[in-house]
Design a protein that fits this description.
Layout lengths: L2 H17 L6 H9 L5 H14 L41 E2 H17 L1 H6 L3 H18 L5 E6 L2 H5 L14 E5 L5 H17 L5 H20 L18 H15 L2 H9 L16 H13 L6 H12 L25 H21 L4 E4 L2 E4 H16 L23 H4 L12 H9 L30 H4 L3 H12 L2 H12 L1
Helix pairs in contact: 3-19, 4-6, 4-8, 4-19, 6-8, 8-9, 8-10, 9-10, 10-11, 10-12, 12-13, 12-14, 14-15, 14-19
Length: 504
């Protein structure tokens, strides 16, 4: 047996030991066999667990994802700032604050909207921990009233290299926005993340909650006063929608968190910016902001009617049978927006639809009108359920697109740390070239089971290539998982119903 084969066998043995806790339960498989609702509680827990596998920095003793180790412990050192921590946003080893902030906001939104359901599933503490791992980093990154560090790591050098984060030796270049080099999208998104999280921690840690809200106000002021497009200075995560959507998104969260009328006046004064969008994503925030402000509309703020109209227009573009439908579903029933990482748009859309259906029900509104077609709140929720079920296994491939959930799921995740043996099993350094030749180009399953990771998903024909090289289909992202947390949390009552049926 050659040295490379020995490494693979050693890592596989270690991986099997580490993965036992993430294997599918008999209950979950039984539900699938009966054709009933999936185990949404299990899916929620795994979706949150995924974030522990994306952690950067010094890992705590409570770390549950055992194949990961400490990494990037000197981040920020060139500028004498402490930027250790946060999340790697996808299958690479760069920390991008923009998608990190969006992910934290989505996780916080889920905690705000579905606190009781998530608590009943015994996942609220884990969710709060995932949120705080992100907010702690954002607080560190906002080093002055007009400075926000937005990226740690050289994107090009990192993407040209295939190594686990524990071995990382690519440049940890620092990027920041300032009054002279602004990036309103990122500053506003960071503000939204902190204000949303401040709501989560209000009754848990009041001093931390107040700190988050204070820093959120500072970031919003920075974003609004020094307006400028982020991509004019930075090459990655280019914005195509500009910064107006992020400013509205941020102001909406600040009003929800603080109840300060100046933020309400801001969104009223600028509602002309709002438009009927085609997607909700790390770049396009309008549908999320509109869903938030529509809640205020139903709460009595009738001067926010345009936001209500615009979010309902967005929903009408998604609902099958609507005469304003913009996106078709695949033959298998999956909402299909675009070829690159389509499930990010599915999960984010589902979160908006889930929250809005809940808003309608709570306001005793019978639904929305899409031209001549009426959709009830329960119909909107049913569409969300169909998409979540597709992701969890109800699809032509009969596979779950969440790693570790169900009996069949992706095995060749486009993810550096997951594909290379754990440093605990194989402590010798795996360099860029060895990582590329031995693991990226390998046809073998990933060495470590990244439980809970949702991949980019199948193509328009419901076909999925389980290949590490197919990054648009096989790479996970934090914002994809974060949106899924909100979507699946809204279905937790379905699991209880399925459980009762299965028991009978």
């Amino acid at each position: 047996m050659g040295s490379s084969e020995k490494v693979w066998v050693l890592a596989l043995c270690c991986t099997l030991t580490m993965a036992l806790a993430g294997s599918s339960s008999q209950y979950e498989l039984a539900l699938e066999d009966l054709g009933l609702s999936y185990d949404y509680k299990d899916a929620l827990g795994k979706a949150i667990l995924f974030f522990e596998g994306q952690r950067s920095g010094k890992l705590p003793a409570s770390q549950r994802v055992k194949w990961r180790g400490d990494s990037a412990l000197d981040d920020g050192k060139p500028d004498n700032v402490k930027l250790v921590g946060g999340y790697y946003d996808a299958g690479d080893n760069v920390k991008f604050l923009w998608p990190m902030a969006f992910s934290v906001t989505l996780l916080s939104w889920a905690a705000v909207e579905y606190r009781n359901e998530i608590s009943s599933a015994d996942e609220l503490n884990n969710l709060c921990t995932a949120i705080r791992w992100g907010t702690d980093f954002i607080l560190k990154a906002h080093t002055s009233s007009t400075t926000l560090y937005t990226q740690v790591g050289d994107g090009q050098a990192d993407h040209d290299c295939w190594e686990r984060p524990e071995d990382m030796d690519t440049p940890r270049t620092l990027y920041k926005i300032t009054a002279d080099s602004p990036g309103s999208e990122v500053a506003a998104d960071a503000a939204a993340a902190l204000s949303a999280a401040s709501l989560v921690f209000q009754g848990v840690n009041s001093s931390y909650s107040k700190k988050l809200l204070s820093k959120s106000k500072s970031l919003f002021k920075f974003a609004d006063k020094y307006r400028g497009k982020y991509n004019e200075s930075f090459p990655f995560y280019i914005s195509y929608t500009g910064y107006k959507d992020e400013l509205i998104w941020s102001a909406a969260w600040l009003y929800k968190a603080s109840r300060d009328e100046k933020y309400l006046n801001y969104v009223v004064r600028n509602q002309g910016w709002s438009e009927s969008a085609l997607e909700f994503s790390w770049d396009g925030k309008f549908p999320g902001a509109q869903a938030l402000l529509a809640q205020e509309f139903y709460g009595g703020k009738k001067d926010l009617s345009k936001y209500k109209t615009d979010v309902e227009s967005f929903i009408c573009k998604l609902m099958p049978g609507s005469n304003t439908l913009q996106y078709n579903t695949t033959a298998g029933g999956l909402l299909y927006v675009r070829s690159s990482s389509n499930l990010q748009y599915v999960t984010s859309s589902c979160m908006v639809l889930s929250v809005y259906s809940k808003t309608l029900m709570a306001s005793n509104i019978d639904g929305i009108q899409c031209g001549p077609t009426h959709f009830s709140a329960s119909q909107i929720k049913s569409f969300v359920k169909s998409q979540v079920d597709y992701i969890l296994g109800n699809n032509p491939m009969k596979m779950s697109y969440m790693v570790g959930h169900g009996s069949k799921h992706p095995t060749q995740l486009h993810h550096r740390g997951s594909s290379i043996p754990s440093i605990h099993c194989h402590p010798s350094k795996v360099g860029c070239n060895d990582g590329m030749s031995m693991y990226f180009n390998s046809n073998s399953p990933n060495q470590n089971l990244h439980v809970g990771a949702i991949v980019g998903g199948p193509d328009s024909n419901d076909h999925f290539n389980d290949l590490r090289s197919e990054h648009s289909q096989s790479e996970p992202t934090t914002y994809m998982n974060a949106a899924f947390v909100g979507a699946v949390a809204g279905l937790l009552d379905e699991t209880r119903g399925a459980s009762a049926t299965a028991a009978e």
